[in-house]
Amino acid sequence: CEKEPSSYMWIYILLGNMLRGIGETPITPLGISYLDDFAKEENAPVYVACLHTIAMMGPMFGFLLGSLCAKLYVDVGFVDPESITITPQDSRWVGAWWLGFLIGGAASFLSGIPFCFLPKSLKKPEEANEDKTSRYSPVIMPCTFQCQLICPFLSDFCTSLKKVLGNRMYFMFLCCSLLQLSGFIGFLTYKPKYMEQQYGQSTSKSNFLIGMTSLPPVGLGIFLGGLIMKKYKMSMIGATKFSFTMSFLAYLISFLHFFVGCDTSVVAGMTVSYE
Question: Could you tell me the pLDDT band of residue 245, with boundaries at 50, 70 and 90?
């Protein structure tokens, strides 16, 4: 190919993802605070677990949707399907990658409408712990700054951020979450491509297998963890020991990956010479 591509479509995708991130980010921190403030203390772990479980279902359906779109030719609706002479197994095949953005955008818009009908405040349960606000004040503190100017806001934000990062337990939890998510995101990102190259699978089938086998167990584990915490009414120390035990077992089981795999595929120009 002598002529370089001149399409600037990537700019629209970049702006779309940025707007999507702005809209989705408040759901996790504010949603968890909302649940914690207006739910009974023993029910909060189950509600938070349900929130994260549903969040894991999103990528699963995303992979399934990607699998469906990958089976359709990129110009679906604009060309005659009978005129297409290649199949999804062909290396020249390009799936309808753009169709998932339209379906996902419409679903996000419709799912955001019910948020407009949420009440501004709810009646707190009588069993709520009176010191709950003081324990979680670093999380909800920025809400009191929404009417201030930019400079005071930044000053107060830096103060709140310093207090939060100065909490040793929270900082350690942040580091653990960062390490766990880094490995998991790397798995989701490169596993489909590995299946395509190593096992000769199509893009559609690789996404389907990842969506059906990888994400549902994670969502189920999050939900069961919330139920266990509710049943045994774990304290902060008990929840920490429970988390450590489960993470350590997962770490040991992960060693089994070293014994599973295939030889590297022979690729001319990469693993062997062209001759």
Answer: very high
DSSP helix/strand/coil, 160: helix
Name which of 65-74, 129-138, 187-196 the model is least confident about.
Answer: 129-138
Q: Hey, is 45 helix, strand or coil?
A: helix
Q: Which two tokens stand for residue 167?
A: 């909490």
Give pTM, 2 decimals: 0.55
Which position has the token pair 């900082």? 171
Give the three-class secondary structure for 84.
coil
And the tokens for 81?
């399907």
DSSP 217-261: HHHHHHHHHHHHHHHHT--HHHHHHHHHHHHHHHHHHHGGGGG--
| Cβ atoms 106, 117 nearer than 8 A | no
Q: Which amino acid is at 206?
A: S
Buried b (16+ CB within 10 A) or exposed e, 43-57: ebbbbbbbbbbeebe
Residues 181, 137, 30: CA angle, nearest 5 degrees = 50
* Least confidently predicted of 35-44, 123-132, 172-181, 237-246: 123-132
